[in-house]
Amino acid sequence: MSYKRIEITDEQLARQRDLMERVADINARQAARPLALVDTYGCQQNEADSEKIRGMLNTMGYDMTSDEYAADVIVINTCAVREHAEQRVLGNVGALSHTKRAKPSQIICLCGCMMQEEGMADRIKNSYRHVRVVFGPHELWRFPEFLLRQLEGGKRIFETSPSDGCVTEGLPSQRDSAVKAWLPVMYGCNNFCSYCIVPYVRGRERSRRAEDVLAEARELARAGYRDITLLGQNVNSYGKDLPDGVDFSDLIARINDIPGDFLIRFMTSHPKDAGEKLFSTMAKCEKCARHIHLPFQSGSNRVLSAMNRRYTREDYLELVKKARSYMPDVVITSDVIVGFPGETEEEFEETLSLVEEVRFDALFTFIFSPRAGTPAASMPDPYTREQKQRRFDRLVELQNRVSEEKHRAYIGSTARVLVDGEEGEVLTARTSGGRLVRLKGDRSLIGTFQNVRITDSNTWALYGELI
Ligand code: SAM
Ligand code: SF4
Ligand code: F3S
Questions:
Q1: Same domain, 89 and 182
Q2: pTM (2 decimals)?
């Protein structure tokens, strides 16, 4: 796949920094600091992008709010992966006509994957006239320019030209958590699974340079982050577009060498590209969490081939065996789609049998959602929504049973967990495998590793006591 690497230059970024200062000057003349609201849909990549948007807003003099009537600027970072996510976005954007009416100076911006879909920008232009700015993921770094143009009374902005995408370094980031951090290592996807819109809206695979990733990881470790998740749609392709020969396993090993007490996680691994080197690296890197998210999507070879996944059921089962041979305690989670066009009852049963065989610790289950422009959207699909829903319910029931059994097996064991938050009176923590543990303790423990004894469990969580 040919792709010309586009890096946003220092000059281009310096210009955006100047524009940020100009917005900050305008805002400094206000009686009070203006407010901004950023609402995020979709995956961790979008969460990471929203942290950049907040970072830019903060630099431009905005404080954050969750009150949409109080906000001077609203940014909605959208997801296109399933129709349901899109309808939620459109419903919420429609409702913002009220806030705009109550506060006519409010600047409403839409960005993210959904805006990059063909025809979407026109739809917003014509039907959501209260929206002032629309931009796709490739234009994120130009947000200061768009905002300044609005503050100076400019026309509505629509910046969603098709692009293979770029790599941008050096944008400010305001992170959501002081304990866990997202660290994107690559962007885009080349896989074109036949159901998936991501390659069309996020562009081609491109990796950040290892030195940039390492510099950010060092900074996170120095700032005291305890859990760093490396992000990419297919992290196992990391580095294939770079000249220095560093692959994803090498990158993990180098991050593992950074001093500090922190865990390294990553997502997502594509089964066709994961293998021995990744598992042996995970096993020997003491900071690497004992967890791999390895989406299988279907247990039927016919469906896998129609999905363009490029591995078989047998390949997948072999891979799981290999991962467990290196790390017997590794937690394996996965994604699966029910009701892919033409999936028969027998083919669905093969998905159930794969779930029985692997015994995933947790599963993210989706009903197929046709995405315009993808090959699967025009495949014949004789099964009804009700039939698919019944299959979905059976799958969820099976996985709930497996999760409950796997969680029960933790009772009586001890684990080192990272305390990462609180829910009312209870602290929440995660095991190295990413399992949720609820425990009693003082909130000053948030951000620390603790040893706990697991005393109880259910389908979704473990319960523990500090040792
Ligand atoms: N890149 C990752 C991978 O290949 O596993 C995940 C990408 S996607 C954001 C997350 C999950 O959404 C996929 O693993 C798939 O199960 C699901 N998904 C993607 N497109 C879908 C569609 N059209 N309908 C239903 N589920 C979909
Ligand atoms: Fe979508 Fe497949 Fe790429 Fe994942 S690997 S983002 S499912 S096309
Ligand atoms: Fe959605 Fe875009 Fe992520 S489509 S799942 S936000 S890459």
A1: no
A2: 0.97
